[in-house]
Amino acid sequence: MHVQLICLATALALVAGFAGPGASQVADLRSATEFRVCADPANAPMSSQDGTGFENRLADYFGELLGLPVTYSWFPSGMGFITRTLRAGTCDVVMGYAQGDELVQNTNHYYTSVYGIVTRRDGPLALVDHLTDPALKDADIGVVAGTPPASHLARAGLAKNMRGADLFVDRRVEDPLGDMIEGVRSGELEAAVLWGPLVGPRIKDDPDLQFTPLLKEEGGPKLFYRITMGVRLEEQEWKRQLNSLIRRNQDGINQILHEAGVPLVDDYGKEILP
User: Fold this and answer.
1) How far is residue 236 from each of residues 77, 116, 230, 267, measured CA to CA in Å?
2) Which among 202, 210, 63 has a CA at the least distance from the CA of 125?
3) Closest by CA position to 3, among listed 77, 112, 75, 72
4) CA distance 19 to 210
5) Cβ–Cβ contacts within 10 Å for residue 243, how many?
6) pLDDT tens, 155-171?
7) What are the DSSP calls for 33-83, one per residue?
8) Looking at the predicted structure, is the pLDDT value of residue 21 above 90?
9) pTM for the predicted model, two decimal places
10) Is 163 exposed, middle or buried (0-12, 13-18, 19+ CB in 10 A)?
11) Residue range(s) defining the domain that contains residue 246
């Protein structure tokens, strides 16, 4: 999860003990007049305070389906995010939340995405589509520390090749993923292995770089993950309403994601093309 999406849920789980005794008393806080979204203001290309992220566009879409204006409660994701937003009652839904976290109640997933490898289109690694490819033997490879592909790289004997970036940073002032993308462009790195929703939109129309989903890896951890919305644990009816909207409007959701450049796969890890 941006920091990579899939790791956001793990980070937020650290604050489970700080929810406080009032957590069970917020079931009636959902607004009937606004679609109130909890979001990170500096998590482009997913969410951004200027409204340009693809999760912003998805929020607008759901607001239209609900017939409600969209408003935001902004807070940097990481320690304290759920406590200060959703559980505090300042908003009612977290977009782009990895399935399985215990701090929130997950809706049904509305997309599944995958880690992949960023390479130069005209470079020697352009055809690489799995991390055990011998072509990676002497390549400098960017990866975010602590993310699932780092384990695959280490198992493939490429630990010495990894050029790690920190998992948790203040993205208002640092952009480690952007730095790695530019490293591949400049040749400082031969490749970077990154979370698709974070990198796909950034290089969607790039003439020099490409993103290849890693769909052939064997063993764990898995490299594709279901993404949901998070709501408060007590709000079953709200979850059911969102699930119904997801089920009935999946084609519209996929269209927004494809237009943004988010790589999509099905529940079995098979690529979904536009």
Assistant:
1) 24, 35, 12, 24
2) 210
3) 77
4) 42
5) 16
6) 999 999 999 876 666 66
7) S-EEEEE-TEETTTEETTS-SHHHHHHHHHHHHHT--EEEEE--SSTTHHH
8) no
9) 0.87
10) middle
11) 5-111+225-266
Residue 261 in domain: yes
Cis peptide preceding 149, ω within 30 of 0: no
Residue pLDDT, tens place only, 114-133: 999 999 999 999 999 999 99
Distance CA 177, CA 194 (A): 8
Confidence of residue 6 (pLDDT cuts 50, 70, 90): very low
Q: What are the backbone angles phi and psi of residue 43, rounded to the nearest 5°? A: -115, 40
Domain containing residue 34: CATH number: 3.40.190.10
For residues 165-180, b (16+ Cβ closer than 10 Å) or e, as one string? bebbbebeeebbbeeb
Same domain, 95 and 182: no
Q: Report the alpha-carbon distance of residue 195 to residue 237 in Å, rounded.
A: 32
Our CA angle for 173, 153, 147, nearest 5°, is 40
Stretch (H or E) spanning 237: helix 236-248
271 falls within a domain:
no
Q: What is the pLDDT of residues 169-202, one digit of tens each?
A: 666 777 888 999 999 999 999 999 999 999 999 9
- Domain boundary among the residues 213, 234, 255 is at 213
Residue 170: per-residue pLDDT? 64
Cα separation, 195 vs 213, in Å, equals 9
**Integer Rg of the chain from CA:** 19
Look at the chain and report how many structural domains it folds into: 2
CA distance 84 to 124: 47
